[in-house]
Design goal:
Elements (H helix, E strand, L loop, with lengths): L11 H24 L9 H8 L13 H9 L8 E2 L6 H10 L22 H11 L3 E3 L3 E2 L12 E2 L5 E7 L2 E8 L22 E2 L3 H7 L4 E4 L9 H7 L1 H10 L2 H25 L5 E5 L12 H21 L3 E5 L8 H7 L3 E4 L9 H8 L4 E6 L4 H4 L2 H14 L5 E5 L9 H11 L4
Helix pairs in contact: 7-8, 9-10, 14-15
Length: 434
């Protein structure tokens, strides 16, 4: 694909000029703030009109960098606009979005037979897309130097923990599904002694600081929803039903795998944060704990079995000055007090269609206790709503979270049934796409 000049990527001089403009705008805003009202706790009639349209969120002439916006959001110090959440999508969704925004890309092979490009295509193309859309987050990671992860003649491929994956069609798109679960039949801890679990030594951390410097003006995170992930992640190795039985019985085999998985992610993330020297703003992880109607396991089981692992993980992350982000689908309201107690800063993906997850109720009960990320439904709003519906929902979030505490984006992986116009409407309403 072609049709764009790669020189459109922002240069260092352009970034310096923009930073100078931002500094001037912030000085002007501070002067206005000193002369203006000291509190928004009792808005007048004209201010009420602004809140009704979310206008109070964005102050004219005041532009933050994405990193400044991130800290204003998590510290509730009035960001200039909401952050747009980190995006994941089906490969065909990225193809459509790249084409819409005239982003060149090249993929070798059939998209429908390759592993899904959840985070976009090649780094160069995705950076062009990210700048065109105004994305706030950038991801950094150590380079993989471990054992070869094979791709087989039938199109399946090896996963990091010894599982094997293949593509499965799903509502017009594709999802990855495990076709080999290597620990499915294990019943004794001794059977795990010779099993090859991944090691933090399989990664090269030397480029992490360079990656952080490259994205210095952005909110920088490492890892993703697959980190930690003791339900899905171990389900890929043993089977989902077996994992639920394991948790109910507190099976020693399962608990041993939990320990192995924890040690790997803890050490890999620790070394990444050490290499970044304070330049990583957040670490993402994931644990799908909800169905559409309620918790998928007893919250107390989560607290007692997995909670100590998350507490230690979050404590280590905080020791490097970074925030914690956790992906969890479904109705997880009952877990939120536990998440807060464990040290979670930001909850993704806020699946508002699930029971008890309406955004107004979450704001009422948890505002300034935990930040919410996502909340734009991939089940109903984004695929079935109109652009006007989407703008209205974004404005509602701006009104509720006018001092911060919200990161706006899809409630999960962007699906093939999402019209491109609805994505554009969301981005324009957030204010990242001008």
């Amino acid at each position: 694909m072609s049709g764009i000049n790669y020189s459109a990527v922002q240069t260092g001089d352009q970034r310096q000029a923009e930073n100078a403009l931002r500094s001037a705008a912030k000085l002007a805003l501070r002067a206005q703030t000193v002369a203006g009202p000291a509190s928004h706790s009792q808005p007048g009639a004209s201010e009420n009109r602004s809140l009704a349209h979310g206008e109070n969120y964005c102050k004219e002439g005041f532009v933050m960098t994405s990193k400044e916006r991130f800290y204003a959001t998590v510290n509730y110090t009035s960001p200039d606009r909401p952050l747009i959440a980190p995006l994941e999508g089906q490969s065909r969704v990225w193809e459509r979005l790249y084409n819409y925004f005239d982003v060149p890309f090249k993929v070798e092979g059939n998209l429908d037979k390759l592993p899904i490009f959840f985070s976009g295509f090649d780094e160069k193309s995705h950076e062009i897309f990210s700048q065109k859309v105004g994305l706030d987050f950038r991801s950094v990671s150590p380079g993989y130097i471990g054992p070869e992860l094979k791709v087989y003649d039938d199109g399946s491929w090896d996963g990091l923990f010894g599982e094997r994956w293949k593509q499965e069609p799903f509502t017009g798109g594709f999802y990855e599904k495990t076709c080999h679960k290597p620990l499915a039949g294990f019943t004794e801890v001794d059977e795990l002694k010779n099993y090859r679990f991944p090691s933090a030594d399989w990664y090269d951390y030397n480029t992490v600081a360079v990656q952080c410097d490259k994205y210095s003006g952005y909110a920088i995170y490492t890892e993703g929803p697959g980190a930690m992930d003791y339900l899905n992640g171990i389900g890929f190795l043993r089977g989902v039903e077996q994992v639920y039985i394991d948790i109910a019985l507190e099976d020693p085999v399962y608990l041993t795998i939990v320990e192995k998985r924890f040690n790997f992610f803890y050490e890999k993330v620790r070394r990444t944060l050490e290499a970044a020297k304070g330049k990583i703003d957040a670490v993402r992880c994931g644990e799908d704990l909800g169905t559409q109607l309620g918790p998928i396991i007893n919250p107390e089981k989560f607290r007692t079995i997995l909670g100590p692992k998350y507490r230690d993980f979050f404590k280590m992350i905080h020791s490097y000055g970074a925030k914690t982000m956790m992906h969890s689908c479904g109705s997880v309201r009952d877990f939120i007090p536990i998440f807060i107690d464990l040290g979670l800063d930001i909850l993704e993906v806020v699946q508002v269609d699930a029971k008890g997850m309406d955004i107004e109720g979450l704001h009422r009960d948890f505002y300034k206790k935990i930040v919410f990320s996502g909340s734009m439904s991939v089940q109903n709003l984004l695929p079935k709503g109109t652009p006007e519906d989407i703008v209205r929902e974004v404005e509602r979030r701006k009104c509720l979270f006018r001092d911060g505490g919200i990161i706006v984006g899809p409630t999960n992986v962007m699906q093939i049934d999402m019209p491109t116009g609805n994505f554009v409407a969301m981005c324009k309403a957030i204010g990242c796409l001008i």
